[in-house]
Amino acid sequence: MTTFVSPPIALLLGLIVANLSGHPFLHLNHKATNILLQVSVVGLGFGMNVNSALSAGKEGFLFTVASILSTLILGTFLGKWLKIEKKTAHLISCGTAICGGSAIAAIAPVIKSEDKQTSIALGVIFILNSIALFLFPAVGHWLDLSQKEFGLWCAIAIHDTSSVVGAASKFGPEALQIATTVKLARVLWIIPVALITAVVFKNKSSRIKIPYFIGLFILAMVMNNYVSKTAIIAPYLVSIAKIGLTLTLFLIGAGLNRSILKSVGVKPLFQGILLWIFIAIATLLTILYFN
After folding, report:
1. How many CA atoms lie within 13 A of 188 on its CB side?
2. How is the chain split into domains, by residue range?
3. Which long-range CB contacts under 8 A does 198-203 form with residues at least 24 apart?
4. CA angle, 138 as apex, 285 and 188 as ends, to 5°?
5. What is the pLDDT of residues 202-234, one digit of tens each?
6. Verdict on whether the full-model pTM lies above 0.70
7. What is the CA radius of gyration of the chain?
8. DSSP one-letter string for 37-69
9. Which of 263, 236, 222, 214 is closest to 114 using CA atoms?
10. What is the pLDDT of residues 2-37, one digit of tens each?
């Protein structure tokens, strides 16, 4: 399947289906993509090297901290400047800063956002994710980035894990390993950001969703490196995981119909674009300067 349909093409096909025939199970789409993405990421762990992953994680740590803090601060100011609802602006900022839809899903109950506010934030993030999947590999090749540079860049500057993995897999195997490791380390920042959010929005009763699947990803990576018998099935698991990722992106595209795109609004989309441009350019310049 992945031989004939790349992740960007799968997303495009999903968009075509959504806007021509519609998605008959749209109400189940978000849950299905979330589960399928997590399973696919765990499967990719069977193709990762522990030492390389640790090295990438250490290198991406400072980028992660600086980019998350600066994006959240800038997002707050942009939200006030554009007069966007505080909760909507915060969800867009968190989605841009950490890991797209997953961050929004985790933060939304903490701030007790309304369905419309959550939907607008998700719409903004998914639109920009769709663009990133096509744009980033093209820019990476145009700038002649190394696989290491591209892996770091897309892990920090692309919102959703699905689009990060999709863009990196198109660029190369080393980029995929670096991007996946750095992005999953970034996902863990949902927890401290959610705790801070609960204090800022004065909500102490909300439960915070912890991304437990990252532990399974680490376990898969450890098994791939230290359990010899895993080598027999690891290539098959990685192949299945890549197919799962392609299907995930198709379903994400299939969930972006006209009504969702229209409901986003100009100001929230403008906030998302400005934040995205900031994090993409700042991260790229930092990576090129220090490398």
Report:
1. 13
2. 7-18+26-290
3. 198/110, 201/87, 201/90, 201/110, 201/111, 201/112, 203/110, 203/111, 203/112
4. 60
5. 766 556 666 777 788 888 888 888 888 888 888
6. yes
7. 18
8. HHHHHHHHGGG--HHHHHHHHHHHHHHHHHHHH
9. 263
10. 445 666 677 778 778 777 777 666 666 677 877 887
